[in-house]
């Protein structure tokens, strides 16, 4: 069973077997799934491509970017989903000696009364994906240890936020009504696809994890409501990058 997958034993394939150290180290990586904002960030001179490095999978390798004006911070656009996100982070953390992972992206709303108009800072993540079970022993939830640091930084900057549990799932087309009601009863206020897996990865690899999400589609309705899923305007996408950059800068 997947819940019996974790073993505290030596890995056969190590990240050092496939990844090469970059000549320069960085302290913090910002990772997101918002590829539509890339052109705008480059045009605004907020990010610049690092030379001689691409990271990805057999589906394609992609640039890593320096965050202009912040010498300790890099930026990467990740494909969606727990396995590929964690696999890429394994290589990035090793290659650049990363200590902090800032992750942001869209989420589905499970409780619209709580999350309306606010950034969501997860405090726990329900492990409804497969990757995390290879990184830590089985449990329903994984803790997000750095949530207080995130909220303190946001509060000092006047950024509106709410805290709560997130539900990480591998199968968004199987978010059934019964499971939705169960997760909501457990305290989950949003749903996404990566956070519990990255939290487990961070715990095993000894890096700090700082996630936040913003509401896109809404499940807390008589019918699924797309809302801004896939259609968020570019200025808002840039603003979420700036929030992530602020958070990363306080860590660096």
UniProtKB/TrEMBL annotation:
Single annotated GO MF: purine-nucleoside phosphorylase activity
EC number: 2.4.2.3
Keywords: Glycosyltransferase, Transferase
Substrates-to-products reaction catalysed: uridine + phosphate = alpha-D-ribose 1-phosphate + uracil
Biological process, per Gene Ontology: purine nucleoside catabolic process
SUPFAM superfamilies: Purine and uridine phosphorylases
Enzyme class: transferase
Residues that span the membrane, as ranges: none
GO cellular component: cytosol
Domain Nucleoside phosphorylase, residue spans: 50-219
Pfam families, per database record: PNP_UDP_1 (PF01048)
Protein's UniProt name: Uridine phosphorylase
UniProt organism field: Haploplasma axanthum
């Amino acid at each position: 069973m997947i819940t019996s997958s974790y073993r505290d034993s030596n890995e056969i394939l190590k990240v050092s077997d496939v990844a090469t150290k970059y000549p320069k180290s960085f302290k913090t990586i910002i990772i997101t799934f918002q590829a539509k904002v890339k052109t705008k960030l480059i045009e605004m001179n907020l990010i610049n491509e690092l030379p001689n490095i691409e990271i990805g999978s057999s589906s394609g390798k992609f640039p890593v970017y320096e965050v202009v004006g912040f010498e300790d911070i890099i930026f990467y656009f990740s494909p969606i989903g727990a396995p590929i996100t964690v696999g890429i982070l394994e290589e990035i953390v090793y290659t650049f000696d990363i200590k902090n992972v800032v992750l942001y992206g869209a989420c589905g709303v499970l409780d619209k009364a709580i999350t309306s108009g606010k950034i969501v800072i997860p405090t726990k993540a329900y492990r409804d994906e497969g990757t995390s079970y290879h990184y830590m022993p089985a449990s329903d939830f994984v803790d997000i240890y750095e949530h207080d640091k995130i909220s303190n930084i946001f509060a000092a900057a006047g950024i509106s936020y709410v805290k709560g549990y997130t539900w990480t799932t591998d199968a968004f087309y199987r978010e059934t009504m019964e499971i939705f009601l169960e997760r909501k009863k457990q305290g989950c206020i949003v749903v996404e696809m990566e956070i519990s897996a990255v939290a487990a990865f961070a715990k095993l690899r000894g890096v700090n994890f700082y996630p936040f999400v913003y509401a896109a589609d809404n499940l807390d309705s008589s019918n699924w409501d797309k809302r801004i899923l896939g259609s968020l305007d570019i200025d808002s996408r840039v603003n979420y990058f700036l929030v992530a950059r602020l958070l990363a800068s306080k860590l660096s």
